[in-house]
Amino acid sequence: MSDKIWAHSGDSHFLEPADLWHQIMPVAQADRMPRTEMISDDEELVTVDGKSFTRSVPKTFTSKGATGETIIEMSHRPPGSRDVNLRLTDLDEEGIWGEVMYQSIGLWCSLIDDPQLIRDAARAENEWLASEIQSIAPDRLVPSALMPMLQVEDAVAECLHAADVGLHIISLPTGNPQGTRDYNDKSWEPLWAAAEEAGMVVGFHIGTDGGDQAAAFRGPGGAILNYVQTTYGGQYAAMKLVTAGVFERHPDLKVLISEGGASWVPFIGDRMNEAYRQHGMFVRPQLQRLPKEYLYSNVYASFQHDETAPAAMWAMGYNNVMFGSDYPHLEGTYGHTQKTLHELFDDVAPEVRERITTGAFVELFPHVSQPPAA
C-alpha cells in the first residue's frame, strides 16, 4: 500500500459558513433560511422557514474494519469542512483530486415552500459558489448549483444562470418537490432540455426525497434499515427519466446518482428490461432502446466502500461507475481513503481502476485536471 492511488470523487459536501445566508441575502429572507443550533452534546435543532426538527449529531466516531480492527477514529468534521484551503490539504493527503461538492445545510432548502424565497436563495448561493468556492481551485472543485424546484420555469432559469456563472452541475432532490408533478411527467421537459443545452450534469444525491427517512424504521436494526432506505430515491429518479423517454429525447443529458452505490444499476436495468419485454402491452411510451441501455449510457453512479461496485463494471458491463469519498460525512472515507482504494482496486485490472477512479468523472467534467502522477 505504499503507492498512492489518486481518485476523483463523485460525492462530497461543503459545510456552509454559519452566517452564509446573512452574507448573501437580505436579513428578512436570510432569517427564514435553513440553520442549525446545537441543543445538547449530541443533538441539533434544524430550522427552515418556521419549521423545525431535531436530529442526532455524533461528536466522534470509530470506523471498524471487517475483522473488527479500528480503521480511523475522528471528530465528526475534518479540518477542511468549512475552510476550502484546508480542504485542499485534506484532499491531497487522502488522494482525492477533483470532487463534486453538494450542499450540507442547503440540502434542507427542499423544505422551503415559498417560490420567491428559494428562487432568490438559489441565485445568491450559486453566485457565491462560483466566486468563493469554485474559483479557489476551478480545475478541482465542482460545487453543485442550488435549484429552485417549486416552479419549472424558475428551475430552467437558474440552470442557465448557474451555467453562465461557470458551474457544471445542478443538484436536484431525488423526490419531486411538494406541489409539483413527478419527474416522469412532461412538465419537467423544459428543465431536461435546458440542462442538455447548457451541458449541465443533473446530480441527484440520495436521501433528499423530502420524507423523514432517518426515522422510517424503529426497533432492532432500525439504524441499518433507515440507512439502506435512503438509497432508493436515487434509483427511482433514474428509472423515471429512463421510462419517460427523457434520455431518448435528450441523448446528451447526463445524470449522476451520488452516494447510492453502483451495483444496483445492472440489477435495476435487468428488471426494467424484463418489464419492458414481458409487460410490453402496458408500457407507455415505447422506447427505441431497452431501458437498461439508457441507464448504462446516461446514468453515472458513485459509491464509497461497496466491494461489489468494481464488479458492476468488469463483470456486468456498466462503465459509468465512479468512486466518491463523501467528505466530510460519517459514511465517507476520510482518514482511510487510501486503505479503501487499495482494498477496492489492488486486485482489479488497471483499466477498470482508471475508469472508476478518474475516467468516468472526467467524462462528466472534462474541465477537471488530471491528478498528480502516482
Describe it.
The structure is a single chain. With 374 residues, the chain is α/β, with parallel strands linked by helices. The chain has one domain: Metal-dependent hydrolases (TIM Barrel, Alpha-Beta Barrel). It is 37% helix and 17% strand. The protein contains 14 helices and 13 strands. The strands form four sheets. It has a five-stranded parallel sheet with strand order 9-10-11-12-13. Strands 1-7-8 form a three-stranded parallel sheet. The chain has a three-stranded antiparallel sheet with strand order 2-3-4, with no helix packed on it. Helix 6 links the parallel strand 9 and strand 10 (201-205). Helix 5 (152-164) runs parallel beside helix 6 and helix 10 packs antiparallel against helix 11. The longest helix has 19 residues, at 115-133. The chain starts with 6 loop residues before the first strand and ends in a 10-residue tail after the last helix.
Which SSEs are present, and which pair or pack?
Elements: E1 7-9, H1 20-24, H2 27-30, E2 35-40, E3 43-48, E4 51-56, E5 60-64, E6 70-75, H3 84-94, E7 96-101, H4 115-133, E8 141-143, H5 152-164, E9 169-172, H6 189-198, E10 201-205, H7 222-229, H8 232-243, H9 246-249, E11 255-258, H10 264-278, H11 291-298, E12 299-303, H12 309-314, E13 321-323, H13 337-345, H14 350-364
Parallel strand pairs: 1-7, 7-8, 9-10, 10-11, 11-12, 12-13
Antiparallel strand pairs: 2-3, 3-4, 5-6
Helix pairs in contact: 4-5, 5-6, 8-11, 10-11
